[in-house]
Amino acid sequence: MLTTALVLYTVTVWPKNMTDSVAGLSVSQRVVTNASWWDRKSGYFAVKVMECDGAHRMVTLTKDRRILEDMGYDMARFGRKAKGDGEGAAVQDHAFDAVTKHGIRIGMSKSTVLAKLGRPFKTASRGEKGQYWCCLFKKVVMEDKETGDVLRNTYVFKNGKLIEIAINLDSVPGCGEDSLSDEGWPWTKF
Question: Structure pTM?
């Protein structure tokens, strides 16, 4: 006897100025739970983490090793093979293109990124004379009053050049927290 299963899922269409992937890692795909890649040519890390059984997914493109350490990657062993059962996951040497699915590339100027993406939802600056500036693009799509998704795209600039990209996709309700809140944003360590 042949049995057929029908799997139904919803695909959210995000605004054209927002993306769900960077460096080939997507927050929409649940196939890979966690990944950490290092591109020798650019010196960038592409990291994907999932928490709460996939309710919170994040892909980050950064050069900041502290971010990877906070995600549980063993940066002390970076570039060397682990001896025994060391703590933390390994970082893989894996080439990738440091660009989002919709063409925002590391190194672009702030004016070019904003011309392409439009007005951000929120901005913040830090450092001496606003050396670091970041912007948040956010879209909330609710299926009903209690369930939905929140997509966040964060772009961090240093002296007017794009240095970091973070893509977050959170399910509503989240895992014991308010997934709609931006409390603590920007979550990066600049």
Answer: 0.84
